Amino acid sequence: MNDNSSNNDYDKKTRTLIQGMVEAEEKAIASRKKQAAPEEECECRDGMFPNGKTPPIASRRQFLAATASGAAAIAVGSAANAAVPAGSMDYPVQDDPSKVQGRLTNDDGGYGSRSQFETESRWRFPTATKESSWTMTPLDSGHGIVTPSGLHFERHHGGIPNINPDKHELIVHGMVDGARKYTMEDLTRFPSVSRFHFIECSGNGLTEWRKPTLKTVQGTHGLTSTTEWTGVPLSTILREVGVQEGAAWILAEGADAAVMTRSVPIDKAWDDAMLVYAQNGEAIRPEQGYPLRLLLPGFEGNTHIKWLRRLEISDKPFMTREETSKYTDLLDGGKARQFSFMMEAKSVITFPSGEMKLPKPGFYEISGLAWTGKGRIKRVEVSVDGGVSWQLAELQTPILSKCHTRFRFPWRWDGKPTILQSRCQDETGYVQPTIKQLVEERGLDGGKYGSIYHLNGIQSWAVAADGGVSNVHQY
Amino acid sequence: MFTNIKISSLLGTLLLSLTLGTFPVISFAATGYGGPYNFGMPASAAEIALIDIDAMPDGRGLPSGSGNYQKGKGVYTAKCMGCHGADLAGVKGTGAAALIGGRGSLASGKPKKTVESYWPYASTVFDYVKRAMPFNAPGSLTDDEVYAVVAYVLGEANIFDKSASLNAKSLPMIDMPNKDGFISDPRPDVFNYE
């Protein structure tokens, strides 16, 4: 156990960053608890966050519906309704739905919303500006492998542009036989592919290097999401424009206020890169790059340029701000790793996880996610005794390349305090390391925490005698 | 007989590539194209020039124009100081980064990353200021203003001569203090292979 060490040895900026994350998470936890009556005790899986959400909100909504049933219809159609969770509408709730007709078919305007009883939401890191900020996916409440489009994590550097797709163009130029421009209509005419891939920010877990800092899996791991992406293979476009001899890098540039840019090795472009325009069966969300995003399966999230407007083929990397001053990994000794694109194998138990409470001893299905930028997950092991012994978890099919894989493990909790962990192996044979191994290898021990990116160490959740689950470091 | 051997070795290669998981890539790259389709239109030099704003370390992409420390001080005071501060240390609460200082701190255990201490190329400063600064009006500076404000920041950092002109010729000649500070990614760096 190593949770007594402090974050004082981080540089000032990182300390501020971490403190902000802690406060944002506290706020999210408090608001979740506030939505529930304090006397409610969790008895079911859905209610395993203490003071769980479902029954109390139901009664509150019933009350509102009963007192304002006539006015409820007026609320329908308002985009942001503070009375109900984001992404839902304030519909009347029937005391006995089998005794009255339900709401009218297609009266939602033809686009459905989630139930107003569902409260999962992203929370934002409190950066100085809301334009340059990020939000976390609530992995703790997720099921299966796909992230709902509205819960996909975000990282913006210049706000979220609102782009008219009819006016959006992609220009491809540089070391090509013929520079071309494409409208969205042009791009959707090309043969398309659909693939399930995760995107993970390389800053995922940045608070967790030195000691367990955030409380929930949304905080520790919420910068990864999986989507079915549809678009054109980038290799198709490269063949269309004719790449010249000596080309080695491609600059990808967004149309946002940051005019975000990253240099991409051309091998990746030929391999499995995509220009995507669809997310989970519909146009990609504005927060994810509408109308066009570069997808580089397995590479760190920042390289998946959103609102893509330009690709320039060149012989050298462009050395943009993000690939020099930002997404580089400063090591002990003062040198920094650059172009560290690969997101290595990682897994985490999402149930049970931090801030949940197991009501009593007995059967629980441990469940979580594993992923790797290098291909498929080969196996996941779970330890229910703090790493003393490991047992194979069951992998839920489909097990897809560069994609979240869901694992499950049946467990009978005897009521004694213990520590739960998962570790995965990918198809290259690489096994997820401990945080300690990463720290030792990258020279981050002894107070030198220059690098905050690419943490893929084993996550540990302690289960206390009272069933409370918390974030700990266990090597 | 000879032919059979060739076929079996070919199959072996195929099997090997399947085992390694490279087969989908091969089939994708070799058979997935089916073009040319000739969708889209040729992009003219003028159309490209409108958005081709990047600058590279060797100076490619740098526009004509120039600026110096003195002119840059005026630009900085009017358009940058509100967030980055009179001391270029970044004003608390704005989210703006410190631009100077921290030289020699990278290996100290308390690294301070600034343009002066960490950024390896002057072209990156030009490129970033031109595309994304100032935060409240990105892309609004003229090329002369960008050259000038970069000359000011690098002058304050004691990297660029305060009396010299910064332009497409002089900018790529600048040696940033941390130009040799970056190494390629050696990962995997932890080996638990079984």
Protein model, in words:
- The complex is a heterodimer of chains A (475) and B (194).
- Chain A has helices at residues 12-34, 54-67, 69-75, 184-189, 217-221, 234-241, 266-271, 321-326, 435-441, and strands spanning 123-124, 133-136, 154-156, 169-174, 180-183, 193-200, 224-233, 249-254, 261-265, 274-279, 282-283, 293-295, 308-314, 329-330, 336-338, 346-351, 362-371, 377-383, 391-392, 394-395, 405-413, 418-426, 460-463, 469-472.
- By secondary structure, chain A is of the alpha+beta class.
- Among the domains of chain A are: 154-337, Sulfite Oxidase, Chain A, domain 2 (Alpha-Beta Complex), CATH 3.90.420.10; 342-472, Immunoglobulin-like, CATH 2.60.40.650.
- In chain A, the strands form 6 sheets. A 5-stranded mixed sheet of chain A has the order 5-4-13-8-9.
- In chain A, a hairpin with a 7-residue loop joins strand 18 (377-383) and strand 19 (391-392).
- The two termini of chain B are 39 Å apart.
- In chain B, 38% of the residues lie in helices and 5% in strands.
- Classes of the chains: A alpha+beta (475), B mainly alpha (194).
- At the A-B interface, strand 4, strand 5, helix 4, helix 6 and strand 13 of A face helix 2, strand 1, helix 3, helix 6 and strand 4 of B.
- Strand 5 (180-183) of chain A pairs antiparallel with strand 1 (41-42) of chain B.
